[in-house]
Amino acid sequence: MTNEILWIIFAIVNFSMVTFIYRTFGKQGLFVWIGMSTVIANIQVTKTIEMFGLTATLGNIIYGTAFLATDILNEKYGKEDAKRAVWLGFFTLISMTVMMKIALLFTPAPDDFAHDALATLFDVMPRVALGSLLAYLVSQYFDVWIYAKLKEKFPQDKWLWVRNNGSTMISQLLDSLVFCLVAFYGEFPANVWLEVFMTTYIIKFLVAALDTPFLYVAKKFHQ
Asked: Which residue windows are transmembrane per the record (predicted)?
């Protein structure tokens, strides 16, 4: 199975699980999902794949599900609940970073087999960690704000796709810009930095487009 086909299947599975947890556990399920997805995304992002002729990180799909979850919260319960979810995800991400940094300070036992693997995943460069935290907070807060503004301007259900795609695609552009500036600016030649930025956003743009049908499904739950 090619990476491209597997990526599409993986995206469908991820977004289906968001709608399932919302259908089963309601608003609380989305809060749990956002906390979990921020952690998993920062683990998966360490793996790169070749897809559509581009080199991309694997964490973009699960990271995109956090935007779907906040859009569902914004749509069904208002921007204050969506903001609370953003802060929950941010606190979860910081907690994971701090706890794993401390865990790596322990001297492993002679027969330990996990330390090097954990160091590869969690001993990230300070600029990358800072870029990830800032990009998440800035882009998610902007997503909540612009979704609420679009809902005021286009409140009818027929414009749900505009609210979803408009907020997420613009927010993902901001996310990619903040992350690439903080994490990589000055580390690569300008043309390479631009390629990394464009590749990152193209993948996130595709993820944002794929989540729209799942928002329509989720809107029907818990009326």
From this structure: 6-22, 29-45, 51-73, 85-108, 128-148, 169-186, 198-218
